[in-house]
Structures are given as structure tokens and as C-alpha cells.
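Here's my example:
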Amino acid sequence: MRRYRVSHTTRYEYESPVLHATHACHLEPRGLSHQRVLESRLTITPDQAELQSGRDYFGNVTHFVEVLASHEVLEVKSESRIEVAPPQLELTPATRVSWEKVREQLAADRSLLSAREFCFDSPLVRSHQLLAEYAEPIFAPGRPFVDAIGELSERIFREFKYEPLATDVSTPLAQVLRERRGVCQDFAQLAVGCLRSLGLAGRYVSGYLETEPPVGRPRLVGADASHAWASAYLPTLGWIDFDPTNAVFPGERHVTVAWGRDFSDVSPLRGIVLGGGQHSLSVAVDVTPEE
């Protein structure tokens, strides 16, 4: 088990005063069987902001911020302390089912409706024949489901280039697939789109990576920023996370914040402002281990 301090600061600077603003934040890590939140707090500037917390449809901790005072700068800082252990991925003969069997179960078993909702299109991830064709060589007839998602992760890692300025949140998956470049959000949504295009359940996971790896371990791509990966549903085991940006199954170096259908469900900070004009945005993320 590893313990971390996570700091995530988002700062907007506006060219003219904002008269009224409301924002929704997904910044507090989730409590999970392998992850424990020791402390978490949100600091808002200006300090006249009103803050409420709750949970969204997917059970993610969500903070709602309303700023009634006129302001030209908005800064939201999230600070957390977390303990993370490696998720227990216990593969048994019962989990070595073929991917076609998984698809059949998702379609037929009414008890799996909460997973099946991740088989359908969402605002940023839509099923497409091109995505199915990309995944089909991996999902060969009779291939075990877990083996297939592992190779899908590795193929995206090999064939796509990590370029932070190549895309933004509005870049279509078809463009990402064609140009073979993007960032972790693109690669996670690409993997989710491949799963859905084959009739499987895929969800999008947002979180963080350890900034400094242990001695002798490689530094993972995407550190010092918010990170994203994908998750696939296996009825006999549950959700299995996989990180196509780094071709790994997430372990104690991944901190989970939220999950949903795609990035639009779990954006760290989004809202509506009255006034403000043009704005500049800066984001600073730091994930450091505690001794």
C-alpha cells in the first residue's frame, strides 16, 4: 500500500469581471476497496463562494460551487491524502471466458443492467465500424476476454503517439484513430469506443498518476497532470481497469477520482459564467508519495 498527497489547482483569469458563476467539480478521489481517502478539502478563491457537496449519478463525489461576487480570477484547489493498494485481479477458470460469452451475458442477463448502460453511445464516445475494425484482429473468435483487453491496451500504446497539443476535448475519435496521436483522455475514450463497438461495456475513469516513481521503476506517461484510463466489465469478476497510455493494468500508482461514460461525465471542473469575456486557464497537478 502506498500513501500520497495530491494537489490539483485550476485557475481561470478573465478579461472582464464575471458577475455570477456556477461550477461542478469532480476533484475528490473515490473511496474504494483498494483506495482510502484520509483527508480531502477544496479551497475556492474568491472566498465569497458557496460550496455544497453530493454525489452524481455514477456515485462520484461532486462539489458544486456558486460565486455571486464579481471576480476576475477563479481558483479552485483540491488537496487530498490517499492510501492506495494494488487492486486484486484474481484470474480463475471461471474468469477465462471468451469475449463473445461476455457480450452474450451483457445482452441477456437483466441483473447486469448497471453495466450494460456502458455499452451504449455517449456524448463523446459513439460506436463506429472503424473502431470495431480496429479491435477485431485482437478480439479473435473464442479469445479470453481478459487477454483481449490486455492486448488492446498494448496496441494503442504501441501505435499512438502521446502529444499533449494534438487534440482537445472536442476532437472526434475518428480523427484520433486516423492521426494516431493524442493524450490519455483520447486513448481511454478510444479503448472505450472499441469495446462498445463490439457490444461490450466500457467506462471512462479519471484520476492521477504518481509523479515520482519508486527507485528502479519507469516514470509513467501522463504524470503531473490529471490522467485517464478505461475499464471493461467481466460478469464473473467485475470491472477491470486498463491504462492504454502506458500499457498497464492500474495498480498502486493510479489514484481513482471518478468514472462515467466519457470525459464529459467527469470533467474536473465545468460550469457557466455570466460575463468574463475571454479567459486564460492554467492547471497544476502534483502527486507525491509520503514516506
